[in-house]
């Protein structure tokens, strides 16, 4: 028993020593428990001070001091944001309520605004999807008379939301926009008066703001001067259809041929370099570089890239102003061959096919169809395969035919003679005749192209003052002693019919009208090209030989 008491005493003594030395586990447990109680008390005090509760979903957790600080910061920032949002919502509401009878355009692209309530009426503007309008009259079935963007016209009611649905949609579409206050405002590539002009904005047009800096506003298409805009909350509205300005968007560094007839494009910047293309008067191109001496521009125009004399090219603002004056509404074909019909419907006969080798002047537009000029007549093509826009003429590939004799062996065989005999005698009579024929064809082709750009005149025969298609071929051939009648149908019977694989420079190619009657003739100049007096719009021009379907090819030279 005494021994047991002694052991108990020793054990108690050891625990006392451990507590004194800080090694007793129970000691630390008690201290830790007190610390937890203190922390919990502090959390409760903070929570109560913030107006919080500890009930609810059962997912509540104890927040640390750092979390409490973050919460306090967020709450401090939320209140001003709420006030700003309330102010913005009020401005949006005011914009929506400013329309008496609101309409919102519901299309993925844009909706045409027309001059009158008819699909054949002239298009005067367009409303992008989400644009707003004031509906002035809804009494005409299928149409709304509207006011939008300073324009008044008619739009199809099928694609317009109205009533409460329009107001709800409009509220989400209102944003801070730059509204143009001057007649025309340049959109520049950089925020500087010296920067390149990309296009022009017109009065009352609205643009979403990307950013603002001193004196300039950045929009999606470039920069505009802040002096000529009103920055305010607004809905997008109609834009006036001014397609001419779209011409400027096609070129970064526009050059326009400033010649009366045509300008040669050469493979090198030298006067005697090979000609690879021609630009008719007022044709456009992209200037790629300038030679060190400044005498030549390397230019890309249509399919041709080469060099032109800089003295015959307009650049800078002069080129832009000229482009806006001479641009024409054209149909640019987006497929290799496109059916052209007699009437604007798929039931109408296909009387020819056109190619994507050139641009066709637009005579009129209907829903789904475009009427284009084809020499002295017209045809209809589906809009699905053409891009209708204002554009400039561009260069066409062309290399003059070399005026060299044909190979001797070919000449001898064509006459049934001996090549060796001709060679031993220094050339037979048949060889001379063949060489003369080859050279004559080259001379005819090169002579014809001298008159590019000259005017078309119905019934005319002057290569300089004006001629029609048959007058052109008649006058060119007359220069080389070949007589032809002044009528395309009669010229088609004046020689020997050949296939396209047999045609050579100097042959004539004929085309028909929608009734199948020959009504146009062109002169083949080699390289898959023809030269012809096309129409009053284009004058004498170069085209691919099958720019529309040929009906007949004739050799009128008799060789």
From TrEMBL:
Residues 100-164, 175-238, 251-317, 328-390 form the SH3b domain. GO terms for molecular function: cysteine-type peptidase activity. Residues 438-559 form the NlpC/P60 domain. The keyword Protease applies. Residues 410-438 have a biased composition (Low complexity). Pfam families: NLPC_P60 (PF00877), SH3_3 (PF08239). The chain crosses the membrane at residues 27-49. Residues 400-438 are annotated as: Disordered. GO terms for biological process: proteolysis. Keywords: Hydrolase, Membrane, Protease, Thiol protease, Transmembrane, Transmembrane helix. Belongs to the peptidase C40 family. This is Hydrolase Nlp/P60. It comes from Clostridium fessum.
